Amino acid sequence: MNIAENIRRIRNEVPAKVEIVAVSKFHPAEMILEAYEAGQRIFGESRVQEFLLKQETLPQDIRWHFIGHLQTNKVKAIIGKTAMIESVDSLRLLELINKESEKTGVITDLLLQVHVAKEETKFGFYPEEIREIFNKGIYHSFRSLRIRGLMGMASNVDDEERIRSDFMTIHQLYDEIKNNQDLETKHFDCLSMGMSGDWRLAVDEGSNIVRIGSAIFGART
Ligand SMILES: *Cc1c(COP(=O)(O)O)cnc(C)c1O
Fold it and tell me: Is 135 in the pocket of ligand 1 (CB under 6 A)?
């Protein structure tokens, strides 16, 4: 695996306005440094302990995106250390991240994870729950959060039309919120969709953040 070469190739293919999160979960610090030296600054991690170890030892200008399911008892440990938490999947978690951010005196940027894929993961809000957070004004109560947008995954299937339609569903929900004149959506500008196998489709369907792991670092063991 030539990590630097993979990053250059993908960077050349991805439109300039789309950010690339290099998903480094399960990979050692040396591999992250290789990517860093090739100019990559945003990395994605999915487990709290692993993230904290890497965050402490690697260059401090790395912007870390937390992308895994976050247990409520681990929230406190990561507050103030992430550039973005992409995988917020419950109201309980929103409340807790808000509370801990307030205590620490930081504003936490985050994305709401949307559940559209059939069968794949049990995590994520249903679109209707996300509409409620906005339309019922619940989002107003989180003074120490910036809800920056949505993160979603397509069904893990070979059927391209199905993948495309999942991405379209997420994009439509994103637009519906962003374009609602009654909502305060000044900071709502991130649509995170697409991984190694489907990022081209995701970008076609409006993604502006792609989360790419194995196409940069190789298979995870
Ligand atoms: C692991 C992971 C990725 C990266 O997956 P690849 O197929 O290796 O690119 C992206 N998003 C999330 C939420 C992940 O957990």
Answer: no
* pLDDT tens per residue, range 21-42: 999 999 999 999 999 999 999 9
The response to whether residue 195 sits with its C-beta less than 6 Å from ligand 1 reads yes
Smallest CA separation from ligand 1 atom 13, residue: 67
DSSP 132-196: HHHHTSGGGG-TTEEEEEEEE---SSS-HHHHHHHHHHHHHHHHHHHT-TTS--TT--EEEE--T
Chain-centre distance for alpha carbon 39: 20
Token pair in block for residue 135: 């339309």
In which residue are the tokens 């951010």 written?
A: 101
- DSSP label of 74: G
Nearest ligand 1 atom to the CA of 25 is 1
CA 128/CA 3 separation, integer angstroms: 40
